[in-house]
Design brief:
The structure holds two protein chains of two kinds. Chain A is α/β, with parallel strands linked by helices. Helices cover 36% and strands 26% of the residues of chain A. The chains are: A alpha/beta, B alpha/beta.
């Protein structure tokens, strides 16, 4: 399938500062793509360039085959956007807001259906200024769907929301993908990206430092899976001598790296055979968050090797 | 430009407005307050009634009474009577801060009926020249009338007074077009400058830029709203002027072009001012710099023809001048030709400001 978004050599400068410094990525049609990065990394700038809200300094950007800045009018008929911290007219109700957007786009959305979809049906007649933060975001999401968009841009849609509201929005994002729409999601929450995204890109200081499926990124940049015992250092010595696997001991914990699945059985047998008393064990694996924190840390220290997982 | 989108946005504007009870209350009550306040302040300032202290030494004789009645009937003086002695009269006047006094001498009636010369004495204070002049004029008028009567004569030469212009109009009649102009200027200017700055800050313009609504459509729906509001407030002001002060102004279809073109002009100008400013604070400042001189120097409270020549020339470059002058031509002077010129000027300026506002008002960032 064709790519919904294509970005090459994208640069955005504000004076001398390059907020986005020569990045490239592609988003496949019908996939969920998550754009990650610390605050000020260039996430929102990039997203706004893709949405046609901001002009780029250099590079090529195609969204649904259109240049977002010069073809913003036809593009906006085909994309849906909820910006960060969605705001609307204070005295207007969600139902009126959807009818308003319907009139502007010339579509006839069923306000009741859309609000039910984002779990806001009970607030259909409440004025915007009486809604909670989560309810406002849900209205933003509903409004971004009034024109039946091919791509949904969601800029930190769950920031500041309680766990129930976040899960409600996750459910909508999954259903958008099921309907064949492309979702471009920026978020602070790494587990959200890991859970929802087919592919993620991590941006820091205006550069993409990792790009790929979450599992591939973890495999490429994460530490290997480990088995951990609560046990005295003597166990570490024993295992090191008998297994030929990397073993560390620290704070009453002994960790052994796994190189393949069968290692688990070998390690447990050896521990049992050692006769040394150990309390309990657990297997550990890096999450996207661990990888993210490590990559961002390495870039700040200048020790990052730039390579891209595919 | 699509009417469906303008109307959709107009509905949002109207709802936002009417659901704000404080704003609604003030926009309906404010025109009445304006008319009542300025009507009361200025309508009394025509010809002042001066207080006159009277010492009647002729023991309230019928002739002296008649003289008092004649003074009273001019309605230029208000008499109060004292029983001071003639020798201390001037000193007492000064002690009471009275500036005008009159003594009717003893024997006033006897001398008058016998056709012997007799003088009343008028005391005035040169420091209060206006009252002094008015008192001398009134008392001389009344004594002349008495002389004429004593000579059994009748007036041969008389004066008919006519006002310049069409029917008799008073200050309140001037005030109504002026204050309608005042509200046509102020209510869109202040709120559009504010909207321009706050919608940009809150990201509402960005939000709207993602819809097919264009800036011209958005601005048009606001113009439409302020036109509607202007029709209501103009109606309230005219009604209040008639009910409270008995104003007589002509309400005709000729007023409509001004109630349409005026808001068109000032909504556009307000948006232009709000758009060239970088921050809400500077927007408010620029708005005030543009609004305030226009508020006072366009004939809102006083006819521009009463201004010194320099200020008159300045008034002629203020757009509001043409709105108010045109409404004066329609409501007071029935001068259709000049009203037409005025309305064409207003429409012309409005179109220019509208186009400039659309050009300068960006709802996405570079």
């Amino acid at each position: 399938m064709a790519d919904a978004i294509e970005v090459e050599h994208l640069i955005k400068r504000y004076g001398d500062l390059a907020a986005v410094n020569d990045i490239a990525f592609r988003v496949a049609s019908g996939s969920v793509f998550s754009f990650l990065g610390p605050n000020g990394a260039g996430k929102t700038t990039t997203t706004e360039i893709l949405e046609g809200l901001r002009r780029r300094t250099e590079g090529t950007v195609r969204v649904l085959g259109l240049d977002p800045w010069t073809d913003s009018r036809p593009l906006h008929d085909r994309i849906g956007v909820i910006p960060q911290d969605f705001r609307f007219f204070e005295k207007i109700t969600p139902r009126e807001a959807i009818e308003y957007y319907g009139s502007l786009f010339g579509t006839r959305p069923d306000a009741g259906d859309l609000l039910a979809r984002v779990q806001l049906a009970d607030k259909a007649e409440s004025r915007f200024d009486t809604l909670s933060g989560g309810q406002k975001q849900k209205l933003g999401l509903a409004l971004s769907l009034t024109n039946n968009p091919e791509i949904c841009f969601l800029d930190e849609p769950t920031t500041g929301l309680d766990p129930t509201a976040r899960r409600a929005i996750w459910k909508v994002i999954r259903s958008l993908k099921a309907e064949g729409r492309t979702v471009f999601l920026t978020t602070h929450y790494l587990e959200e990206a890991e859970l929802l995204a087919d592919r993620v890109a991590i941006i820091h200081h205006g550069r993409i430092i990792a790009d790929g499926a979450p599992s591939d990124i973890i495999a490429a940049y994460g530490r290997p899976a480990r088995i951990r015992f609560e046990a005295p250092p003597a166990l570490a010595d024993y295992l090191r001598a008998h297994l030929g696997l990397p073993v560390t001991a620290e704070d009453g914990r002994v960790e052994v790296e796994l190189h393949e699945k069968g290692d688990v059985v070998r390690i447990l047998s050896a521990a049992e055979a050692s006769g040394i008393r150990w309390q309990q064990f657990a297997t550990e694996q890096d999450t996207l968050e661990d990888v993210f924190v490590r990559l961002v840390g390495q870039m700040d220290e200048g020790t990052l090797k730039t390579e891209t997982a595919t | 430009m699509r009417w469906t989108r303008i109307l959709a946005d107009f509905k949002i504007v109207v709802r936002s407005y009417v659901r704000n009870p404080v704003a609604l209350f003030f926009s309906l009550i404010f025109p009445i307050i304006l008319i009542a306040l300025f009507g009361l302040i200025f309508s009394g300032s025509g010809t002042a009634v001066i207080p006159m202290t009277v010492l009647n030494l002729d023991h309230n004789s019928p002739a002296s009474q008649e003289f008092m009645d004649a003074l009273n009937s001019t309605s230029f003086v208000k008499l109060s009577f004292v029983n001071w002695s003639a020798s201390s009269f001037a000193a007492n006047l000064g002690a009471n801060d009275d500036t005008v006094g009159l003594i009717i001498p003893e024997g006033f009636e006897a001398n008058f009926t016998a056709h012997r010369p007799v003088n009343v004495t008028l005391y005035t204070d040169p420091e209060d020249a206006a009252s002094a002049g008015q008192a001398v004029f009134v008392v001389s008028e009344v004594t002349n009338a008495f002389n004429l009567k004593a000579a059994n004569g009748s007036a041969i030469l008389g004066v008919n007074t006519e006002n310049v212009g069409s029917p008799v109009y008073t200050y309140i009649d001037y005030l109504i077009p002026g204050l309608i102009g005042f509200s046509i200027l102020t209510s869109p200017m202040f709120s559009m400058v504010d909207i321009a700055a706050s919608y940009r800050k809150e990201g509402i313009f960005r939000q709207l830029s993602l819809t097919p609504l264009t800036r011209a459509e958005w601005l048009s729906s606001h113009i439409l709203w302020y036109m509607s509001l202007t029709f209501v407030t103009a109606g309230i002001m005219i009604g209040a002027g008639i009910v409270l002060f008995g104003a007589h102004v002509t309400v005709s279809l000729g007023l409509i072009p001004f109630l349409v073109a005026g808001p068109f002009l000032f909504v556009s100008l307000g948006m232009l001012m709000g758009s060239v400013a970088k921050t809400p604070e500077s927007a408010a400042l620029i708005g005030n710099i543009v609004t305030f001189p226009m508020m006072f120097l366009s004939g809102t409270f006083f006819p521009v023809s009463d201004f010194p020549p320099g200020l008159q020339a300045f008034a002629h470059v203020l757009p509001l001048y043409y709105v108010i002058d045109g409404m004066n031509q329609v409501m007071l002077f029935a001068n259709a030709a000049r009203a037409l010129t005025d309305v064409l000027v207003v429409f012309g300026i409005a179109v220019v400001f509208f186009l400039l506002a659309i050009r300068f008002f960006q709802w996405r960032d570079e």
